[in-house]
Design a protein that fits this description.
- This protein is mainly α.
- 77% of the residues lie in helices and 0% in strands.
- The protein contains 13 helices and no strands.
- Helix 9 (182-208) runs antiparallel to helix 11 (223-261).
- The longest helix is centred in the last third of the chain and has 39 residues, at 223-261.
Length: 315
């Protein structure tokens, strides 16, 4: 167990280093830069070059990477090239909005997916199982932005039941009007609920028909005890890894959901930074998303390994 944990942590560290290089490289290879965006078509080539020099964009890539990495290790995320404000301040303003969407969605996935997946797996082939599986496949097949637009058109515009957008609202206003969170939370929840529920359903079905469960029944153990002590614990390992991917997917899905519903969260900030070619902001957002993915997958792998430890045979 200790050897696996050490190897997995070292792999995560290597992944983080690769992410650092990849984030900087991708940001550097964006067409144009902040000077081009700020000057637009009205700036002369001389003005653009002067602005590029003032912003430090004319330095070699390795020099800029070294400066960025040194500041990053010191906890300095840099300043926006378009506004001049600290990137950390902008991140702090936006992260609360994304959490208002992500945390309720994560809670719904955590509560509903095990219930739906377990019921479906224990009644494999039944009408309930077929209905839940069909609904999961349909919801999974619909892209998040399409589902968002359909809900806005039907629930908000046609029926007038819920707000269609959060344009112009910050964190305090969103808390004061929680109805505006309902549709985006549903959109964020749908696909990841389906993914995790189907994973749990498959694992429960396999464990329920496995040799160990059959042997326990032959010994006279009640079905309820077999399910609680063997089937469900055995299904937790694969579910832990899928749960980690759901957490990662919720953060990535925020980019589309915030765009559809007009939320000024991390996803909206990332899109805006790319449009402005604001390299410090682009790198910070990309690094945040990537580091979160590495971290949650590390935790998911460790939990899955702990729940289903491998036997090491030495000879």
């Amino acid at each position: 167990m200790r050897g696996y944990v050490l190897r997995r942590c070292l792999l995560a560290l290597a992944q983080c280093l690769v992410v650092l290089v990849a984030v900087f490289a991708v940001g550097s290879f964006l067409p144009g830069d902040t000077a081009d965006v700020l000057r637009g078509e009205l700036g002369t080539p001389e003005q653009v070059e002067a602005l590029r020099a003032r912003l430090g964009l004319d330095e070699p890539a390795l020099t800029r990477f070294g400066h960025w990495l040194a500041h990053l290790l010191a906890g300095d995320l840099g300043h926006s090239l378009t506004t001049g404000l600290p990137v950390g301040d902008d991140l702090g303003r936006r992260v609360g909005v994304t959490l208002l969407l992500g945390l309720p969605a994560l809670l719904l996935v955590t509560v509903l997916a095990p219930v739906v997946g377990t019921l479906s797996g224990l009644r494999e082939g039944s009408l309930l199982d077929r209905a839940l599986n069909t609904a999961a496949v349909v919801l999974h097949a619909v892209p998040e932005f399409v589902l968002g637009l359909l809900l806005v058109a039907s629930v908000s515009l046609a029926a007038g039941l819920l707000p269609a957008t959060a344009v112009g609202m910050d964190g305090a206003a969103l808390l004061a009007q929680p109805a505006v969170l309902v549709l985006p939370v549903i959109v964020l929840t749908a696909r990841h609920l389906c993914d995790l529920a189907r994973q749990i359903r498959a694992a429960v079905a396999v464990q329920r028909h496995g040799a160990v469960a059959g042997h326990l029944r032959l010994l006279g153990m009640r079905e309820r005890t077999v399910v609680l002590r063997h089937v469900l614990p055995g299904a937790l390992g694969p579910a832990a890894q899928q749960y980690a991917r759901c957490v990662e997917g919720l953060l990535g899905g925020a980019v589309l959901v915030e765009a559809v519903f007009g939320f000024r969260g991390l996803g909206d900030g990332f899109v805006e930074a790319v449009q402005n070619r604001d390299l410090p902001q682009v790198q910070t957002y990309a690094l945040l998303f990537s580091a979160t993915a590495v971290l949650v997958n590390l935790v998911g792998d460790l939990v899955a390994h702990r729940l289903a430890p491998r036997r090491e045979v030495t000879g």
